[in-house]
Amino acid sequence: MGSLVPLGGDLPDEGRALAEALRGLFGGLGLSVRRYATRRHRDAGSVSRFLNGSRVPPWEFVNDLISDVTEQQGQPPTPEAMELLRRLHREALAESGSAYGRVQLLEDQLADADRRSMESTNLVRALERALANAQHRAADLELQLRQLHGRQDDRIAEKDKSLQLYEDQVSALLRERQNLLREVEALGEQLQDAHARRAQAERRCEELERQLVVAEELWEEESGEADDGPPTPGSGTPAQDDGPGAGHGLEPRYRLDAFVAGEANRFAHSAATAVAEAPAKLYNPLFVYGTSAIGKTHLLHAIGERTRRLHPDKRVCYVTAEEFGVEFARAGHDRGLDRFRRRYRGVDVLLLDDIQFLADQQPLREEFLHTFDALHAANKQIVLSSDRPPKQLTELGDRLRNRLESGLITHVQPPDQEARIALLRHKAQRDGLVAAPEVLEYIASQIQRNVRELEGALIRVSAFASLNRQPMDVPLAEKVLKDLVPDRVPTREEDVVHLIIDETAHYFGVTPDDLRGRNRGRAIVTARQIAMYLCRELTDVSTPGIATVFGGRDPGTVEHADHKLRNLMAQRRSVYNQITELTARIRDAGGLSVVRPALPAPL
């Protein structure tokens, strides 16, 4: 056990009893004080004072010591022994007279009071439900008894008549059953036909979407040829001997002032603006991620366009990962590869789109890794985009992922309702379309997945109205979009939010409706704030979306809960343990399919 100062005679009885009990437990470990303090990352002097009774230890130390003894001996203490230790600990805290002991004692008493209050509430609810069920059952039994008495009186006089009526009813039910079986068979065939038609409609929708993408790309190419003349060979890469900014591969119509930044994407827009105004000064690299067709490419082009306008001496290059790989394959070896490297390592701003496509070939990833290092060492700006955050790009390798995580990471999320309406209004003004505000609101409410589908829906409605010489109103939009907009089902992220609410409610012994409701009880408020924090931490649902799920609250309530829980986890080990256990439960229940960032541990 190591040398310990003997118990003093001036100690209170409770403190001496607690210290002797702890010394007995500690003796079962067969370790010195120093070795045990090293194992538990504690100060050896503090452990000695806990064991010799000169200082009352926190309950966390007592609990850790019990766990270690249980693990060493293979048998936990009896409930009576645990209750005795807890009583001695409380009395020792009360007798110590220190402010710290008073705080610990009050926190312990508060936790017990919360637990007993919750247990009492649950017991009252269970008893109320049992009483209600018993009353209903008694009423049913009384009614059945009266009915039996009435039938018994009638049965003597009308036995034959009742039997005949019963047989007639059975025959009618059998006939009805046969009819229902035939109807079920017919409905089953109709259901199969409906499924087949729906599958055919979905395939047609996918085909139309592919055709729309191809048509838009052809239109953009034709527009580019009409405005800028023939395209520069090797579009997306800087020419070898041209002046600054030549061969930049940028689309002029993608500008920062044309990017409709809603509440969800205001931070991403601000970060892009800061990088364009001061390349390599603030955020380097800047990593932008989000699902397909929600504005990542727009932001990259806009950064390049504003950088060239504000800094004409800067060489700006926009290139997709696919183009980067094709040119690398064409470069070959020796002098061709040297020219390839001079092109990309000589720019001042590199904008690489869809970096996840670099995962196919190891040499290509190595080449980009060296290009990244060369540009970063020369203090050149690097902007990257992907459909996933860096932590999920495991196929890129640890070295490249670590570099991607070294700068600012921003998430471009699907636009909210107001942003979608603004996008449609901007699209209509740019293309000279006349659309009533209610039509734009309807389209924005139906198309929510990405910007390309949103603009495509507006084009479909406008084209249909023009070809049929009909006004572009809401009934027309409903008719055109009826087969293109499937019935909405909850997304994966929304399912995870509801799973978090259910698991948190079960963990704290309350109901999911309590967390979504307006109950202001202390225990329910704490559980609700933890659920809000987990929704922010473990899902990509926007803050307004989370606020809507929790009974339509103000988004500021969700932000306050997130800020409060982060501070509490950094200060209290108990809160950190609760969050960790809840995260594990949600993962085991199937709520997390990917690895999420680690929770901040207490200081």
Annotate the secondary structure layout.
Blueprint: H1 13-27, H2 33-39, H3 44-52, H4 59-73, H5 79-96, H6 99-157, H7 159-228, H8 266-277, E1 286-289, H9 296-310, E2 316-320, H10 321-331, H11 335-345, E3 349-353, H12 362-377, E4 381-386, H13 398-404, E5 408-411, H14 417-431, H15 437-446, H16 451-467, H17 474-481, H18 492-508, H19 512-516, H20 522-538, H21 543-549, H22 555-571, H23 573-588
Parallel strand pairs: 1-4, 1-5, 2-3, 3-4
Weakly predicted, low-confidence segments: 223-247, 486-490, 593-598
Q: Pairing-aware structural class of the strands and helices?
A: mainly alpha
The beta-strand count equals 5
Q: Give the rounded overall mean pLDDT.
A: 79
What is the percentage of strand-forming residues?
under 5%
Structural shape: flat
Instruction: Sketch the topology as an H/E string, one letter per element.
Output: HHHHHHHHEHEHHEHEHEHHHHHHHHHH
Largest sheet: 5 strands, parallel
Strand order within the widest beta sheet: 2-3-4-1-5
What is the CA–CA distance across the termini? Answer: 29 Å
* Proportion of helical residues: 55-70%
Number of helices: 23
> Rg to the nearest angstrom?
35 Å
